[in-house]
Design brief:
single chain, about 35% helix, flat, mainly alpha, 1 helix
């Protein structure tokens, strides 16, 4: 989860990276405490 909505090329890079991590053999989950509330503006 990200706190702010990524736009344009940044969103594409983030998606590609997420697919790469999720497709890695042995990957289970990633957790980190949120430091700010979501901003969907």
């Amino acid at each position: 989860m990200v706190s702010t909505t990524p736009r344009e090329e940044v969103a594409c890079v983030l998606w590609d990276d997420a697919l790469g991590v999720a497709g890695t053999d042995g990957f289970f989950e990633s957790k980190r405490s949120r430091i700010q509330d979501p901003d969907f503006t």
